[in-house]
Design a protein that fits this description.
By secondary structure, the chain is mainly alpha-helical. The chain has helices spanning about 5-10, 10-25, 30-55, 60, 65-90, 100-120, 130-135, 135-155, 160-175, 185-209. The protein is globular, with a radius of gyration of 17 Å.
Length: about 210
């Protein structure tokens, strides 16, 4: 398949996400969508740099289940979600409509996931279609959780547990995604649980603010 066509396919989830946001939130600004896409691109840069540095640490060399889980929690969970949250922080949040802020966080997560998929594709990843179906969705949900924390923080009642949940779920997803066979399906369970958590926190914020 043509390289440019293959790379273009990686951005289908982003096109769909932006389209759905405009359908569900009619007054959503194209500017915010553009900011979200750029923020996702910006976040992938430091993560990619760290991806080449961290694998050289002793903990990543040890070939044990514990080291794999710890690496997934620290690198994929803590580092990726923290970097994405830093870029979400540039979105004005105080007194900003919650749905607009959350939608932009979703777009950032989707953008990040799509650019990550491009990197994996160029690097020779064979399961790129699976990453588009699972990893991008996981990024959207976890970035949404981080966005909920940031919005509540900027409006006086920071729900830090939402951010912690994003870190843990992201790490667990990557841990199980590294397996083949039956254990891999636990990564799908993690995505479903992340969706449930997004719903729970969304309702909690609606009731609190």
């Amino acid at each position: 398949m043509n390289l440019l066509l293959s790379i273009s396919l990686c951005f289908i989830p982003l096109v769909i996400t932006v389209f759905l946001v405009h359908i569900l939130i009619p007054d959503y600004s194209n500017l915010y969508a553009f900011i979200g896409i750029l923020a996702g691109l910006g976040a992938i840069v430091p993560v990619t740099i760290l991806q080449y540095a961290i694998p050289q640490l002793p903990i990543t060399i040890a070939n044990t289940v514990f080291s794999a889980l710890l690496f997934a929690l620290l690198f994929n969970g803590l580092i990726e979600e923290t970097i994405k949250m830093i870029f979400i922080a540039f979105i004005p949040g105080k007194n900003k409509n919650f749905n607009i802020f959350l939608a932009t966080a979703f777009i950032i997560g989707c953008s990040f996931g799509c650019f990550e998929a491009v990197i994996y594709f160029i690097a020779g990843q064979k399961t790129i279609s699976i990453r588009l179906i699972t990893a991008v969705i996981l990024h959207i949900l976890c970035t949404g959780l981080s966005g909920m924390y940031l919005w509540t923080f900027k409006n006086g009642k920071g729900m830090i547990s939402a951010f912690i949940t994003a870190i843990i779920l992201h790490g667990i997803y990557n841990f199980f995604a590294g397996f083949s066979g039956g254990f891999w399906w636990f990564s799908i369970v993690t995505i479903l649980f992340a969706a449930i958590q997004c719903r729970i926190y969304y309702k909690k914020i609606e009731e609190t603010f």
